[in-house]
Structure formats: C-alpha cells, structure tokens
Amino acid sequence: MSAASGTMSGRRVLYTGAAGGLGHHTTLELLGAGAEVLALDYDAEKIAALETAAGGMAGRLQIVRCDLSDRSALEAELGRLAAAGTIDVVLNNAAIYPSKPFEDYSMDEHDRIHAINVSAALSSVRAALPGMRDRGWGRIVNVTSITLTGHWDNLVPYIQSKGALLGLTRAWAREFGQWGITVNAIAPGAFPTDAEKIHPDPEAYERRILDAQAIKRRGAPKDIAAAMLFLCSDRAGFITGQSLAVNGGWTMD
Question: Which of 15, 42, 97, 158 is labelled catalytic?
Fold first, then answer.
C-alpha cells in the first residue's frame, strides 16, 4: 500500500497507456492511494503484468482494452465509462514514438501518431468534462516530453503531438478553471523504458543523459508517479496551466 494511502479515495481516474513503462507504477500508486483506475491500454503482456502487480487492489482496477487510434471504438468505451459514474481525473499518457527522418513518414503515419497521442486525449477529456463540471472538481494531466526543448531529430510527428498537448494544457486550463478543474502537464526527461529502444547505442545515450542531468542517476517511474499524484490531489488545487519538468535537472526553466 502506498504511503499516500487514502489521498485519492473515491476518485475515478481515466488513464491512457496505464500499463506501459511509466504508467504501470503510477497506476499502482493511484490504487494504493485509494483511487479506482480505468486503465486504457492495448498491450496484452503489459496488461497482464499490471493485473498481477495490482494483487489485492485489482478490484479497483478496470482494464479497458482499446486501440486508441480507432476513434469510434474509443468513444464508445469512453461513453460507457462516463455513464457508469463521474470521471474525476484524466491522465493523457499514451503515445507512440516511431523514429525516422521527416520525409520518410507517410501522411497515414502522421495521422496515426496524432490519433493516439492527441486525438485520444481530446476524446477522453470530452467524455469526462460534463461530470467534472457538474461536480465542480476535476484534474487533467497531459504527459508531454523533454523533446519539446528541440534537441532531438527524427521524431517530428511525436514532437508535434507533444506540442499539441502542451497547447491544450494551457487552453483547457484557461477555459475549465471556472469549474474547479485544473489542467497541467508533466514533461518527463529520459527514463529507461521501451521508448529508449529507438536509440542505436544505448550505452552512449545513457552517458549523454547522466552528463546532462544535474542529478546523476536515471529517472525511475516512481519519480513520475510522485508528480502525477501531487497534481491529481487537492493540494494542487491552485496550480493550473503549468508544465512540470521531471528530468533530474537536464533542463531548467
């Protein structure tokens, strides 16, 4: 059970990419804090691992297997979840990140990346907003990326999608604040997840990271979970429209 046990008691959390490298640990922390987690994911192996890890908390974990690029199927699932009760928190975390030169991406690939990384977030917030507004309370957290600082190549559609999420963070924060809803972003640095498999020389990449960071250790999923739970809590009720960099001091704004 998390040290934050009870701080999210009774909250329904919609979490895209909940079984992935950063999502897995945060999902367990949310469960440990008393939340019910509606976990949208598509990877059967990662879903199975999450269900096993949830153990006795699995009764508050609802797995929703859904291809986020299939808008009709996604919106049908979201409608069902919203009809079952207010969604208090939306965590837009799911993303795909193919890597190649800009001119090698087809327009269909651009569209698929945008569908999963951005359009799924739009649909998730549209589903949750009426209930949040009626209750006068809500939390939305968008996961962006350190790549927005401009130091990466061969990731144009991914970086474009994360820029869109940052813009949505600010626009939603302005529009939804009147109803007690906060909207913030978390920009992770480099974490040792499957995302790093796109780098051809992992050892050189790790040296680059540790040289750049002020804190000389790799980031861990618990670091993202701590930031996520804070922004979802009542304690963060006067913080909105912000982007929190969780990167060990790689960048400092």
Answer: 158
